[in-house]
Design brief:
The structure holds 2 protein chains of 2 kinds. Chain A contains 11 helices and 10 strands. By secondary structure, chain A is of the alpha/beta class. Chain B is built from 22 helices and 28 strands. The termini of chain B are far apart. The model of chain B is unreliable at 1-5 (pLDDT under 50). The chains are: A alpha/beta, B alpha/beta.
């Protein structure tokens, strides 16, 4: 595993979280967590149930506002922002429970991912001919590239609700990619998949990282998958960070092993 | 070819190789589409002159990389324009393209790489390159791998094998062309009609595949004259969706396209073939009987689910089509009332149905490889689709016999094609001599001598006879025809085909050679039976569970007894009724080596692997436990186990029937 180290030396920090604290009323979801994400790496967040992984993703995504701590993205400190503003900054995500428009076709679903790249207002859209049409063509071309990339040509016009789970996950990844994000957040991309679907998804994640140079932050339960595809792993337990480093380091860390085997707290 | 058959003519004097034809087409049909591929949701097209340029640059690129006349170049790819261009580029240098099945596993590919002694391999994508790298230690001759799709190929490096991008090689070719503008013309002018044009490995129902060596005179002349006979023109359209390593695709989508000048359309992906076919509306179409069968099955299933009015309309007009459609297609006299009914049916049912199947414009459709059920055959013909059977093999460059227009019967395969001499050997085997008859088996003189006699007669290995009207009728593989202990003939495929004509039976294997009775293995059709289960509220989780359902067993038993009854009609075969059968716990699969890649049953292997079940059939047991290894698509191996119940079939007494 010399490759990720070289990758890190060359790259700069894309995201840095400093001393994040997040609580809901009296419940402390995240306490004093700091870690960074380098440009172009695949960063995994792992941890047992209720460790605060999804909360962490929601903080990065701007859905939750931490009470304490600083978030630096792309060299700038982020202050309170709405999720859509964060989307404009170049962060896209997928969800643990698929959040697609079930009645719309695969193509239309992925097109919605292009909204940050559509600038013509409603009037232009209503007039259609001219600039709005041009814009749509450019965006459609981009989306077709994604459809080709994810090998979902055969279901281009199929309503999403009719697709099996594994394919829906792929469509969701497609929608996130359509935004051309600098950083892609994947919340359990392989949950509920069979081995073959998992292997496909792994390949797509690595290909996205490879082809588009997209930085990827993913939450995943399947340890085998994480250890195979992540450059670095951060481990959470009960809202605290208990490990951080390359998969090899994390795998051999006693605290991490304890957390997974369930030592009493 | 030491053959007495008179030499047929080339499309124009001197056009004796495909690279020369390509140059000719680029002049004749400069701006006409030669090739299309759907990509990014849009049909992209290349004219003949663009194709000629692409091929020239790639050929020179290969030259720059040291490919020379006589080399074998392996091609592993699906139906993509660049796969076909590669073939022509390789031929331009006098080298020999060796296409291989892109869905074959690494071990199968290794055999072809080793046997063909290829130094250069052109692979479609990362998946194929990975397979080659997997076996590279056992194939030390391979020096260069060129890939078409750059996706995921970043950072691929191997110390032993050079890996290059298709585009890079074309750029090298362009540089070479700038330096030596006449080089390409010089190279292609050296090609001759009796040069080796291609080596195609046969899927091999027995043993290792054999490399069939074909010359330009084989493929080019046979394709050209086959096309002329059917009146194909440069305005026809074909959809290339069958494996490029298969002789049929090589003749229909390559040889005939180059000699006649029609456009070849490549689908977006293997899953989109049906939709792409609808969009393109090919005029010339080939499909194995299996495809026609499954299309018909899906039509029937969907009509079962349709609203009652539509269903009745469909049933009524299909009845009309059955009585008048075929007569109309064959220009036989039809009454005015029937004509009106048919026209009405055409507007309401046939035309929309043909359009949905993508066959709205089909002028000529072929089917071959297996027997096709009379009912299936008539269904398409009654819709006005001119589907015909042909008989051929890799060794004959496809065409041995074709059904001429107006003389189409479901149970024969037609009359000899142009330039083919045909006879039946004393042992009942069909033998032929033709311009398409192969050169030799690659590096296998014994097999060549076994198959092809010194004066050019080729043994097909099929048993058949000529009917009174001069048509050829194939019964079975000559070596598969066996005898019962009673000494009577056992023709397994004949019975299996009868079984497979039922929509809910996907595959069947019968046994009887050297035994007293005929027994059968059955595979149900998961699509058809699954739909039936859904309509009847029968829950199932897997093929295995559905296959062992008592109702399914009853349904299959009914079909078996119908087959038995129909066997009575044929005096020669009345004794081979199926006495017992079982439904297999898994589908027979090419990945497990049980079928060939073209989906033919490998009998020997099945005899060994399922011996326990065969014994159980003959021992009179009613239950049998079996454990089978299965290979998953990613190459891992798992196990399927299960208890299989064995059923007695209803048989009919020939004597009682007669009296």
């Amino acid at each position: 595993m010399t490759e990720p180290l070289q990758k890190m030396e060359a790259a700069s920090k894309l995201l840095e979280l400093k001393n994040i604290d997040l609580s809901f009323g009296g419940v402390k979801a995240i306490s004093n967590i700091s870690f960074d994400v380098m440009e172009g790496e695949v960063r995994a967040i792992i941890g047992p149930n209720g460790a605060g992984k999804s909360s962490m993703l929601n903080v990065i995504n701007g859905f939750y506002h931490p009470q304490q701590g600083e978030i630096w993205f792309d060299g700038k400190q982020r202050h309170s922002m709405k999720p859509y503003q964060i989307a404009y900054q170049g962060i896209a995500r997928t969800f643990q429970n698929i959040a697609l428009f079930k009645g719309m076709s695969v193509l239309d679903n992925i097109m919605t991912g292009r909204f940050t790249h559509m600038h013509k207002n409603m009037l232009w859209q209503a007039l259609w001919k001219g600039p709005a049409e041009q814009e749509e063509i450019v965006n459609r071309e981009f989306v077709e590239g994604i459809i080709d990339f994810l090998e979902i040509q055969a279901i281009r016009k199929t309503p999403v609700g009719r697709l099996p789970y594994g394919l829906q996950k792929r469509v969701e990844l497609g929608r996130a990619l359509a935004a051309q994000p600098k950083m892609l957040l994947l919340d359990e991309p392989m949950a509920g998949m069979n081995v073959e679907e998992k292997e496909d998804m792994c390949r797509f994640i690595l290909d996205v990282n490879d082809t588009f140079g997209t930085t990827i932050v993913l939450i995943e339960h399947d340890m085998g998958v994480v250890m195979d595809i992540a450059d670095r792993v951060v481990v959470l337990d009960y809202g605290r960070k208990i490990g951080d480093g390359t998969p090899d380091v994390v795998r051999n860390d006693q605290t991490v092993i304890d957390a997974y085997l369930g030592v009493s707290h | 070819m030491a053959s007495s058959a008179q030499k047929q003519s080339y499309p124009a004097p001197g056009l004796d190789t495909f690279p020369k034809l390509l140059q000719h087409n680029a002049r004749m049909f400069t701006n006409k589409d030669a090739m299309r591929e759907k990509e990014f949701g849009i049909w992209q097209s290349w004219t003949w002159s663009q194709v000629a340029d692409e091929v020239e640059r790639f050929a020179l690129g290969l030259q720059a990389n040291g490919v020379k006349a006589g080399d074998s170049v392996l091609i592993v790819g699906g139906n993509r324009p660049r796969t076909y261009w590669t073939m022509c580029a390789v031929q331009s240098l006098g080298a020999v393209p060796v296409p291989t099945y892109h869905d074959s596993v690494a071990a199968e590919m290794q055999f072809v790489i080793e046997h063909s002694e290829a130094r250069v391999i052109i692979a479609e994508d990362q998946e194929q390159v990975d397979k080659i790298l997997d076996v590279k230690d056992r194939c030390p001759a391979v020096e260069l791998v060129i890939y078409d799709d750059p996706r995921g190929m970043k950072g691929y490096d191997s110390e032993v094998i050079e890996i290059r991008d298709f585009v890079t090689v074309q750029a090298q070719g362009e540089a070479l062309r700038a330096k030596q503008p006449n080089l390409y013309q010089e190279l292609i002018s050296q090609g001759k009609g009796d040069d080796i044009s291609i080596i195609l490995y046969t899927s091999g129902t027995t043993g290792k595949p054999k490399g069939v060596v074909l010359t330009y005179d084989n493929t080019l002349l046979t394709g050209y004259h086959g096309g002329l006979m059917e009146g194909l023109t440069e305005n026809d359209e074909i959809l290339a969706y069958l494996p490029v390593a298969w002789i049929g695709d090589h003749i229909f989508s390559y040889a005939q396209s180059y000699t006649i000048g029609f456009c070849v359309n490549c689908p977006e992906s293997t899953e989109t073939v049906a939709a792409d076919m609808r969009e393109i509306g090919p005029t010339y179409y080939f499909a194995p009987p299996r495809v026609f069968e499954s299309l018909l099955t899906s039509v029937q299933i969907r009509m079962e689910d349709a609203a009652p009015f539509k269903r009745k309309m469909f049933k009524y007009f299909m009845q009309v089509a059955k009585s008048t459609g075929i007569k109309l297609l064959e220009n036989k006299p039809v009454g005015i009332v029937d004509r009106i009914k048919y026209a009405l049916g055409n507007a309401l049912v046939y035309a929309p149905l043909k359009d949905a199947l993508g066959m709205g414009r089909v002028r000529l459709a072929y089917t071959a490889g297996e027997a096709i059920g009379g009912e299936i055959f008539d269904f398409y013909r009654s819709l006005g689709i001119n589907i015909k059977q042909l008989y051929g093999q890799t060794e004959s460059s496809v065409f041995i016999t074709v059904q001429p227009d107006g003389e189409v019967y479901p149970d024969t395969v037609g009359t000899p094609s142009p330039g083919v001499e045909l006879k039946i050997a004393d042992n009942g085997e069909v033998i032929y001599r033709s311009s398409g008859a192969f050169h030799s088996y690659f590096k296998n003189p014994e097999a060549t001598a076994d198959t092809k006699t010194a004066d050019g007669w080729v043994h097909t290995g099929d048993a058949g006879f000529m009917t009174s009207n001069g048509h050829l009728r194939i019964i079975d593989r000559a070596k598969d025809v066996g005898t019962f202990n009673s000494g009577k003939m056992f023709a397994p495929k004949y019975i299996e085909n009868k079984l497979k004509f039922f929509p809910h039976i996907q595959e069947a294997v019968t046994f009887g050679d050297g035994k007293d009775d005929c027994m059968a293995f059955i595979n149900i059709d998961l699509g058809a039976v699954g739909n039936w289960a859904e309509r009847n509220n029968i829950a199932y989780a897997s093929y295995q569970e559905l296959a062992s359902h008592p109702e399914v067993n009853k349904m299959v038993a009914q079909s078996v007894s119908e087959v038995n009854e129909s066997l009575l009609d044929d005096e020669m075969l009345a004794h081979s009724q199926i006495s017992r059968f079982l439904i297999l716990h898994k589908e027979l699969d090419a990945d497990d080596g049980e079928l060939t890649r073209t989906k033919k049953v490998k009998r020997k292997l099945i005899n060994e692997r399922y011996k326990i079940l065969i014994d159980a059939l003959y021992d009179g047991k009613t239950q049998c436990f079996i454990e089978t290894e299965v290979a998953f698509e990613d190459g891992r191996v798992g196990k399927i186990t299960g208890d299989i119940s064995i059923h007695d079939a209803k048989t009919f007494n020939p004597v009682a029937q007669a009296s």
